[in-house]
Amino acid sequence: MKNLFIGVGIILALIILGVFSMTFGVNMYYAIIQKCVDLDQNFKVTVMVETPDGPISGNTVRNIQNRACAPKRVNWPGGNPADVIGEAVVVDMGERGVLFALIGDSAEDEFYQIFYPQVGGASTYHGIKDYYNLPNGTKGSIDPQIFPGYPRLVTFKDMDDPKSVTLLQEWERAHTGGGYFLVNDRMEEVFGEGVMIKDVVLEITDEPVTWKMEEYLGPLHAVGPYEFVNGENK
Do the Cβ atoms of 186 and 167 come closer than 8 Å? Predict the structure, then answer.
């Protein structure tokens, strides 16, 4: 009986050793062989507004981060949702008011619309390699009729009251074709005749991430209902 227990113990030990060796070997294989690339890129978002007094613009610098690996065993594209760190764009038009272009869940898709890679999907190994190699100054304009469209544009009738937030444009997705069309534009109603969005431009930059919200919204800029204008979008 003692020999039986010893034999069973040896078999179990061999099974455990085999499983451990296989797992360790696979992990070592991926650690040594698998190629990975990290994206850590700053980009500037500039919102341009046309007014009767001439064009007025505002900008902010955000950071986008992602990581993707080239799998060895299966043909899986890889990639993860990106982290976008930054805040809303502020366009201060003086007596006319202040426009905010919000940072939200679509922030990474705005980046992807402009800088979509030549090879692979936006968050794949080859796609992120393309982003990694983009030179400073590379830029393009957001097409509001293509996903994800313009960022959400708002203003506050009272800067001290988050409940006074006013949506400036409403877009709807077309039933066919997948595009977007503008159904309500309150720019002129809120800011005056002749005021309209001219362009939203994204540009690769090595400038540091900017933080300006406290100037306009005070210490409440990062809490409660204001949190969507400032912070980290994951």
Answer: yes
Residue 20 CB burial class (10 angstroms; 0-12, 13-18, ≥19): exposed
Q: 171 and 149 in contact (C-beta within 8 Å)?
A: yes
Q: Would you list the domain boundaries of the chain?
A: 1-33, 36-233
Q: What is the DSSP string of 75-125?
A: ------PPEEEEE-EEEE-GGG-EEEE---TTHHHHHHHHS--SSS-TTSH
pLDDT digits (tens, 9 = 90+) for 9-33: 555 555 555 554 454 444 554 444 5
CA 147 to chain centre: 13
Contact predicate 125/119, CB 8 Å = no
- What's the pLDDT tens digit per position in 60-99? 999 999 888 776 444 444 457 888 999 999 999 999 999 9
CA distances from 22 to 16, 27, 74, 207, 228 (A): 10, 9, 18, 46, 46
pLDDT digits (tens, 9 = 90+) for 167-200: 999 988 877 766 888 899 999 999 999 999 999 9
Q: C-alpha distances in angstroms, 195 versus 46, 48, 52, 143? A: 17, 11, 7, 19
